[in-house]
Every structure is written in C-alpha cells, then in structure tokens.
C-alpha cells in the first residue's frame, strides 16, 4: 500500500509543481482583478462537476463495484460493466453540457452574482465558461478510465496522465495568447484541449493493459441501477469540499474585485499538500479496503485505514506549520511578479493561512470517506455533507464582511473540521475505525514535532528579515524550508516516531533491489 501511496503521491506532486508554473503564468499575465476573476469562475464550473461526477460520486460508487466484479466474476464481466458505465456517463454528461452551453448566462448569474455589478466581468465570464464547459465531459470520462486502471492496480499511469492538464495549459498560455483576444481566452481553450489529451492517454493505457473501453450503448442493467443508486447520494457526500469551494467563489464575487483571484492563488498553494496526500490516500485506500472487506479480512482493513491516517498526518501537520509561519514569503516568491503585486501576494497569504488551518481535516476526509464507500454506504456521508454545506454557508455569511477575502477560506476550514469529526465519530460507533492508544500517542507526538518546528521557523524569521531581490528571497525561502524539514526529521527521531537509521536502511535496500 505504501508503494502505491508514494507512486500516486509522486506523480501528483509533479503535476502540482507543473500546476504551480501554470498558476504563476496566470498571475504574472492577469494579476488579481476582473480578468482573472472571470477566468477562475469559468474554470471553477467544469472543475466542480469533474470532482462531483468524475473523481467524486461516480468513482466512489464505481471503483468498489468494479473491484468486486473483477475479483468475483473475472476481467470480461468487469470490462463489460465498465464499458456500459462509460456509455451511461457520456450520454448524461453530453446532455448536461448542451444544457450548460445554452443556459450559461443564467448559470453564471447563480454562481457569480457579484459579476452582475460590472457588465464586463459578466460578459467575459459567460464567454470563457462556454469554452471551458466541454472539459467536464472529457475529464469525467477520463476519471472513469482512471478508476478502471486503479482497480487493476495500475496506479502510476492513471496518476501520470493528469500531467497533461498542466502541460497543455502552460503551452496554451505561452503560445496561443498572441492569436486570441487575451490570455484568459488562451487559458480557457487550454483547459478543454487538456481534457482531450488526458482522456486519450488513459484510453491508450487501458488498451495497453488489454482492457479496451469502447463505450456500450446505455442500458439500465441491474448493476448500472445499483451504480446510480450508490452514486446519487454521494454527489454531496464525496464532493463537500468542492461544493464548499464553489460557495466560497459565489461569496467571493460579492466581495471587492480581485477577491476571487486572491483566494484562488492561496488555495493553489494549499492544494499542493492537500492534492498530493488526499489524492494518494483516497485513490489507493478505496480499492484496498474494498478487497479486504470483500474477503472478510476486517483486521487488515482497520490496519490499512490506520496506516493511511498515520501517513497523511505525518506529512500534513508539518505542512500546516510551515504554511502558517511562511505564508507571506511563499506567496511573494511564487506569485509576486508582473501584474500580481507584492501587496496582492500579502493579501493572498492571509487567505492561505485561513485555508491551512483546515488542511489536516481536508485530507482526513479523503481518508475516512473510503471507509463508508468500501462498505457500500454512500448515504451517511451525504447526510453529514448537507449539514457541512449549511454550516459553511452560514459561516461565509458571518465572516464575509469583517474578514473579506479571509472569510470564505476560514469558513471552509472550520466546516472541514466539523465534517471530519462527524465521519470519525460515526466510523468508531460502527467499529469501522479502531485507533489504539499507541497510535493516538504517536499522532500527538507528531503534532508536537510539527508545532515545535513552526515555532522555531517563526523565531528564525524574526531574527533574519525577509530580504529584497528575487534571488536572495528564493535563497532565504529555500533555506527556511530546508531548516524546517531537517528540524522536523530530527524531532521525529527524538520522539521515537521514526528511526533515521532504519529508514535509511530501507531506502538503500530498495535501491539495491532496483539495481538488481
């Protein structure tokens, strides 16, 4: 499981790094203003549907069913099920896409009500949204094919294919902009083109795995009906985070122009650890839990759940401490260039700190949700999700005026904490989550190590002021990150959480195996 976790996490990290380059280009060319706001809303719409129908509810229902059919009935029956599911998905999404293209002005009035205050942002938002909306058909189909590859335990190629989004996006911004009205149009066309590339790569990978997925004509077979029954309640349950971010965007359009942009770039930094660890944990844990539970190996399922929790907290908690301590320098170094001013970067850093508070909760939701999905329960998360959505909306209304661009991120973080607390309590009541006292003590020591690291970084930052000049700033930030990493590793060793010598021996053993 750790190997698959690291494989998916490694590819996702590379994708996030390329995504960071893409975001830096967006910030440098468009800054934080009406043009950026319009593009971000146009991208948020298909991205929300991707998370809900593709990576979220559909995969949460599809992967356990597919894995179960593959284990019990063989590859031929599993392939037929996947092809039938792909046909149903494409028919539904094409219908949804046509409706979206026709009624996009009305849709934008709903998700970006603040744009109506200035006709320019509204008109541009409608045009860009019509360009990006077909992406949802392509990427949801790609998510299904990726789910099949994950069910076949081909995690690497499924994760690697998502690099195409950022590679194509970067190329579009750099090379297509001169031929279009502005950079926002180039970035929007890049989104849709990347969907074509991702779906093509995944279909090729499935063909290479001798698992061709030409869609079958839609038919509501008993198995497809079961898939739909499990998927519908999961639309909210597995997509709470995305729906909350969309609520944040709606509230953001009602704030001063540029607020959506400030929150977006803060969220992109927050998504580095969240995307890497959350995607790796959720992607690898769901098929593993499904397999153990199908075989009646409940102790092994509990052990897998606890390992996933341990891994993500070990890596997430220092990320929280680092982001809280270094948010300002991080945003200035990464985005404070071109049209995105240093003042914009510092405002965005305030939003980043608010997002970082909820980072462990955001990731743990990805760890706890598969425990329900693997047991065929997609209803419980939806009930919790509805409550979390209401809480997030109320907190947004409470925070939006006094906290401005920091309000929606803080509301999302607090709502995520409530979400993970409810999931954990219900899992424990059902004996689906069993954390020993030893594991709990280990988590407390991990948190202490992260807090100590953050305090030291704040102290060093007070002594060594942030310099001027990009090269010195990069050197300063790199030194601080390196100091934090070394200090955290030392504290883990001192607290007995990880043994440095044993870890080094394992790495050397793995390298020797690869050479052999």
From TrEMBL:
Regions that span the bilayer: 90-112, 132-152, 159-180, 186-206, 227-251, 271-290, 311-335, 355-374, 381-400, 406-427, 447-466, 486-505
Coiled coil: none
Membrane association type: Multi-pass membrane protein
Subcellular localization: Cell inner membrane; Cell membrane
Primary subcellular site in the record, as a coarse category: membrane
UniProt cross-references to Pfam families, sorted A to Z: MurJ
UniProt keyword terms in alphabetical order: Cell inner membrane, Cell membrane, Cell shape, Cell wall biogenesis/degradation, Membrane, Peptidoglycan synthesis, Transmembrane, Transmembrane helix, Transport
Transferase recorded as keyword: no
Keyword Cell membrane set for record: yes
GO MF, one annotated term: lipid-linked peptidoglycan transporter activity
UniProt record, GO biological process: cell wall organization; lipid translocation; peptidoglycan biosynthetic process; regulation of cell shape
PANTHER family the record matches: LIPID II FLIPPASE MURJ
Listed NCBIfam families: murJ_mviN (TIGR01695)
Family the UniProt entry places it in: Belongs to the MurJ/MviN family.
Protein function: Involved in peptidoglycan biosynthesis. Transports lipid-linked peptidoglycan precursors from the inner to the outer leaflet of the cytoplasmic membrane.
Name of the featured protein: Probable lipid II flippase MurJ
Biological source species: Acetobacter orleanensis
Upper classification of the organism: Bacteria, Pseudomonadati, Pseudomonadota, Alphaproteobacteria, Acetobacterales
